[in-house]
Amino acid sequence: MTYAPIFDREPRNLFIPALGGFYERIAQPMAWSVFRLAIGGMLAIEGWAKITAPFAQIGFVENIGFYPGWLWSPLLAAVQFFGGIMIALGLFTRPAALANGVMLAITLFYHFAHPYGDAFLTQAGIDALKAGGDLFTQPAMARLADGGAKFLHQAQGKAEQASLFWTGGAFMFAAFGGGYLSLDRLLFKKQF
Questions:
Q1: What are the boundaries of each domain within the chain?
Q2: pTM of the model
């Protein structure tokens, strides 16, 4: 198999060859770093609630088969929060991204295996909603007119798409590392 670099840096392959240096020295390292900051930053932000209440997910992790929950819940919190910070900084990027990628892949599987359901309301609930007049705003009544089926379908799709995006982003950094503007490269001069 022939080696093919991830980023094509051959000026002769560009429509405007003079931009080759700009792409190589500025655009690609900056884009990689901004995306790394976004992935790591969002993981840390989402992990903050878990790190402030590390045992809050015991029931959830045991429900999906990870026992004992008292071990896995704080571990999940640490991986997401501290791993997110490490990815954002580009420090120990590959191991932090691999751990988060595995966690996010489990989340993605969970969203596919346990959809939100078909509706919030039964037919009796829809009838009560229609009779409730001033209890609901018009936008709420419109959104729940079908029992919430369309709303739940949209929420399910967004959960699956968001999980797929974050899982892919984490695994991408696990595969390719933190990039040129990372602490791994600046401090260690090597990558994992």
A1: 28-115+163-188
A2: 0.83
